[in-house]
Amino acid sequence: AATSLNLVNLGFGSAAVDPGRRSRDELEALARDAGRDLEGAPAEVIAKWATDTFGDRFCVTSSMADAVVAHLFSRVAPGVDVVFLDTGLHFPETLKVRDIVAATMDVNVRSIRPRQTVGQQDGELGPRLFARSPDECCFLRKVEPLERALSEYDSWATGLRRDESPTRANTPVVAFDPKKGKVKVNPIAAWTQADVDRYISRWNVPVNELFKMGYGSIGCWPCTRRTKAGEDPRAGRWAMFEKTECGLHV
Ligand code: SF4
Questions:
Q1: Which domains occur in the chain, in start order?
Q2: β-pair partners for 182
Q3: ipTM (interface predicted TM)
Q4: Which of 50, 59, 80, 91 falls between 20 and 30 A from 107, CA-CA?
Q5: Ligand 1: which of 137, 139, 238, 248 to mutate, most ligand atoms within 8 Å of CB?
Q6: Is 94 in the pocket of ligand 1 (CB under 6 A)?
Q7: Average pLDDT per 10 consecutive residues for the chain, totaling 250 residues
């Protein structure tokens, strides 16, 4: 529980925390301790630990399916950077959520674009790369842009939840990502869909209108389809391929 946390060691109540550059070993140790001590803590406590610990070397990432995590951090750390990967292939409804977040929340929304527009990519690699090689398309339009954006930060937050899919069942609240060399924070990892719905209702958080149209999980329009009642919400993602993740969270 939050009350049993050693908040001083975690950075609370101490002026000694330096959010400046840290070594890989320091980041790894911070993540290990926090992952252990913050398990079971409220999302707000996890979010506050992250922003206090990393300062301006921290950002939130959001797919703008909903704006729960962006909102959570806007309450805990007003002005926090929120990174949105603008693939050029989003539904208009998703861009609408991004624009509402930018206009109504105390956060700094940063839309990060791929190196090439969709047209430039089509010209070089041929049209509809998503239908021929979705891994390559996701790398060019999501993975590389995220890595470029994260180069400015030591830590980032996501809205991953354990109940979203079997591949996410063991998501820790804080962990070191050895590939990126950064600390990944998942403050709502332990939340259920009911917890998310309660938060949205309590704070009147913007939600992507596609959820009301039968979409269970929302990504780029070419790789997202509606889901049927009772179907795994993520079954609508890359439904034509044996692919369940875009590569951002592996
Ligand atoms: Fe390309 Fe689909 Fe990945 Fe979007 S989700 S980057 S369209 S393969």
A1: 2-208 (3.40.50.620)
A2: 177
A3: 0.99
A4: 91
A5: 137
A6: no
A7: 38 45 95 98 98 97 96 98 98 98 98 98 96 95 97 97 92 97 98 97 97 92 87 68 63
